[in-house]
Amino acid sequence: MVDVQPSTEPNQNVSNPADGAIAPHAGHIPPAIPLTGLNMKRRGPVAVWIGLPLITLGIYQIVWYYKIHCELQSFDRRLGLNPTGSLLVMIFLGWTLIAPLISYHNTGKAIANAQRAAGLPVTCSPAACAFLLFALGLNTLYIQRQLNLVIDAYPDAAPGAGVALAA
């Protein structure tokens, strides 16, 4: 059997947090990479709320819901949204009460996080998206108005153009 004794010599390639020594290869801190995303498309809240759904017999609202989730995901990849899942909830479980409420609540949280990422004060209330406005039928109007605040934070950026995120 071989008996291995610990060395008393300091190893120059290993950091020892106890004595504060830092290895030569660990001393370099890479520069911070700025967070970026893609700008979203500005839409008229009244057109999204009542105009286009009336003309298309409600189909536009489903398309709009999918598009805003895709745009939110492209704006800030950290949100972890699943646009297809959100769409399927609205198509197949829209007749229930709980599934749309949860979906609208999660959408409100994503918009609030997008407002934070744009460096804006958070004005979107997930509870308002889900409960109060869903019951009154005003949630689509509210959601689009809150999204437009994020879009207006980048006045010179075209839809789909790269924008810098603040947080």
Describe the structure.
With 167 residues, the protein is mainly α. The protein is 50% helix and 4% strand. It is built from six helices and two strands. It has a two-stranded antiparallel sheet with strand order 1-2. Residues 11-15 have low confidence and may be disordered.
Short description:
It contains six helices and two strands, in the order E-H-H-H-H-H-H-E. Helix content is 50%, strand content 4%.
Strand order of the largest sheet: 1-2
Elements, N to C (H/E): EHHHHHHE
Radius of gyration: 24 Å
**Overall average pLDDT:** 83
Structural class: mainly alpha
Defining key terms:
mainly alpha, 167 residues, single chain, globular, 2 strands
